[in-house]
Amino acid sequence: MKIDALINTLGRDSGSGPALARAGDRALALEEAGYSGALSVETSHDPFIPLALAASRTDRIDLITSIAVAFARNPMTLAQIGWDLQTLSEGRFILGLGSQIRPHITKRFSMPWSDPAARMQEMIEAIRAIWNCWQTGERLAFRGSYYQHTLMTPMFDPGPIDCPPPRIMLAAVGPHMTRTAGRVADGFISHSFQTASYLRAVTLPNIERGLAESGRSRSDFEMSMPVFVVSGFTDEQVAASDASTRKQIAFYGSTPAYRPVLEHHGWADASGELNRLSKQGRWDEMTNLIDDEMLDAFAIVADPSDVPGRIANRFGGALDRFQFHAGIGNNASWAPIIEEIKAS
């Protein structure tokens, strides 16, 4: 199993200095620590610039957007930055895309929203058509329902590269987008608010349907997931990990779009209560609703030495790439555990 880690922060930069300036150093540290991939997330900063810095400092590690907001951009801009990063990294870039939700696309980015699964499929097809034009010299003639790309003059054509075009992974939560990932993407980025039971009963069958529609098999596809892990080498570390994980599960659980995961486990009432409390800003009470049974369903709760075995037992055969959701795995004490996870 491959194991990945973030090279930028989920929110604003800390007082220790801009995270962007440290992205190259962070990627190099991950590579030297044996990680398989360096992830750049799009929150308060552009997701591509950290990977450009990382490409100049590393030689082996995969460089992945996890995720870049697809509908904030168009196929041509994504194709161009993907081509450049694939060139800079000599074939190590993976374009991880996600749709975001409608209010962010229309109100934050001022971009159109419609038929997200169908639009996403066409966007990926358009990106690949542009890359094929640059790599082979074939005339650009993509005409779809949402995107049309029919003009490519020599001045704007970067020409072929000495490696294959980037792989594209797609993040999804609902069944339609998940099936789209199986149909047109090279891999799937799971949301962390997903249990192993839901993954196997709901997500994977939709991936398989999409793969079947494209004439591919599971071996042609890569599954990635950030997993909650409650662990630590001291009581203080375990307590902090436990508290932050319950808080994050409560936050995600309050979102109506994620209600099906809770319903799958018979926790529909908790979903409604979490949503009600979130609207009132009663965050501490929300966290208190995440009992030990719920925590154990969403998170690996174990001593550090037991984490690899627990991951293998819970996700073996279902995941190809693994990411600690946050915090865990960021110090040297985890190095042998990371190697054991990779070997599983």
Overview of this protein structure:
Helix 13 (307-315) runs parallel beside helix 14. This protein has 344 residues and is of the alpha/beta class. It has helices spanning 23-33, 49-57, 75-88, 102-108, 116-136, 175-184, 196-214, 235-253, 259-264, 268-279, 283-288, 292-298, 307-315, 335-343, and strands at 2-6, 37-40, 62-65, 68-69, 93-98, 142-143, 148-149, 167-172, 187-190, 222-230, 299-301, 321-324. The strands form two sheets. Strands 1-2-3-5-8-9-10-12 form an eight-stranded parallel β-barrel, surrounded by six helices. The chain has a two-stranded antiparallel sheet with strand order 6-7. It contains 14 helices and twelve strands. The longest helix has 21 residues, at 116-136.
Biggest β-sheet, characterized?
8 strands, parallel, barrel
- Morphology: globular
What's the count of strands?
12
What is the share of helical residues? 40-55%
Given helix and strand content, the structural type is alpha/beta
Beta-strand level of the residues, as a percent range?
A: 5-15%
Task: Output the number of helix runs.
Answer: 14
Overall mean pLDDT score? 92
Through-space gap between termini = 6 Å
> Which regions are unreliable across 5 or more consecutive residues at pLDDT < 50?
none
- Oligomer classification: single chain
Q: Strand sequence of the main sheet, in spatial order?
A: 1-2-3-5-8-9-10-12
- How big is the Rg? 20 Å
N-to-C SSE string, H for helix and E for strand: EHEHEEHEHHEEEHEHEHHHHHEHEH
